[in-house]
């Protein structure tokens, strides 16, 4: 470092090192780590999978107001048109109700997804259908169930308009328990929301592709709306696909993942064909 004081990111510890003349750490700048151990593992996977240096990946993930322009290092081990109206829950007056074929199918899918949420294990569900209200009904029930279990949720949207649409509906029920990362907020506000999440003051994070990295430490569910969108692909390094990163994070944290689309990606179709994903067709 040639005598300079440099900010870095601690990603793990080794019992011994072959590097000579190691420098002492002068100060810990954050009371609580900005990244969870699971997110650190995820950044390491991204570095390997997308052929991007680990320090560049970390610099992308860490909020800019606290970003460390990391020196190159080599660590091989790490520690462990109008917005639709919010769909209401089904209500019964006690009289016999005849359900349409679509309603029967929807209730069956809700039950299947509820069972997956209850299992609290890694499993991917592909919701296929163009009825946004039906998808929202599934999202809401899944989020409620996850919150009831004391766990947290990440929801991704591909564009600002889709983000606003989802936010307007979710805030009706979860306003005080969620944060939204949109393009309008400045970096200071983004950092404040990040800290709010890190301190477990809220349990739902909603945003576009980079929100897959938010450091929820009791993550129990990830939802990717319109998973086929090419806008989930980052054009600058690290050139990741947020859908694929969501899949990997769900696997690493052993939690359910819900993907939805009117026209699913070829990758998701293939995974359904190979029985790796459960498909729920709404129409």
From TrEMBL:
Record flagged with keyword Nucleotide-binding: yes
Record-linked PROSITE patterns: HELICASE_ATP_BIND_1 (PS51192)
GO molecular function: 3'-5' DNA helicase activity; ATP binding; DNA binding
One Pfam family here: PriA_3primeBD
Gene Ontology terms: biological process: DNA recombination; DNA replication initiation; double-strand break repair
Name listed for the protein in its UniProt record: Helicase ATP-binding domain-containing protein
Domain Helicase ATP-binding: 116-282
InterPro entries given in the database record: Helicase_ATP-bd, P-loop_NTPase, PriA_3primeBD, PriA_3primeBD_sf
Keyword Nucleotide-binding: yes
Keywords, in A-Z order: ATP-binding, DNA-binding, Nucleotide-binding
Sequence ranges of Basic and acidic residues compositional bias: 86-101
Gene3D superfamilies documented for this protein: P-loop containing nucleotide triphosphate hydrolases, PriA, 3(prime) DNA-binding domain
Region feature (Disordered): 81-101
């Amino acid at each position: 470092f040639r005598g300079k004081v440099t900010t870095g990111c601690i990603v793990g510890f080794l019992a011994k090192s072959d590097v000579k003349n190691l420098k002492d750490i002068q100060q810990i700048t954050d009371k609580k780590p900005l990244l969870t151990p699971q997110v650190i593992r995820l950044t390491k996977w991204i570095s390997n999978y997308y052929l991007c240096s680990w320090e560049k990946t970390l610099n992308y993930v860490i909020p800019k107001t606290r970003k460390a322009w990391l020196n190159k290092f080599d660590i091989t081990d790490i520690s462990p048109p109008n917005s639709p109206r919010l769909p209401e829950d089904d209500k019964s007056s006690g009289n016999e109700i005849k359900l349409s074929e679509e309603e029967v199918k929807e209730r069956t899918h809700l039950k299947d997804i509820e069972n997956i949420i209850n299992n609290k294990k890694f499993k991917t569900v592909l919701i296929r259908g163009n009825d946004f209200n039906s998808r929202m009904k599934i999202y809401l029930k899944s989020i409620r169930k996850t919150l009831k279990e004391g766990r947290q949720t990440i929801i991704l949207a591909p564009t600002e308009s889709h983000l606003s649409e989802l936010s307007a509906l979710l805030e009706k029920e979860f306003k005080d328990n969620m944060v939204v990362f949109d393009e309008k907020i400045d970096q200071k506000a983004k950092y404040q929301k990040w800290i709010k999440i890190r301190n477990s003051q809220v349990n739902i994070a909603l945003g576009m592709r980079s929100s897959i990295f938010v450091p929820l430490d009791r993550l129990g569910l990830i939802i990717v709306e319109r998973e086929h969108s090419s806008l989930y692909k980052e054009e600058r390094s690290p050139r990741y696909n947020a859908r694929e990163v969501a899949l990997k994070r769900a696997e690493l944290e052993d939690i359910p993942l819900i993907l939805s689309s009117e026209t699913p990606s070829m990758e998701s179709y293939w995974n359904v064909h190979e029985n790796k994903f459960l498909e729920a067709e709404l129409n």
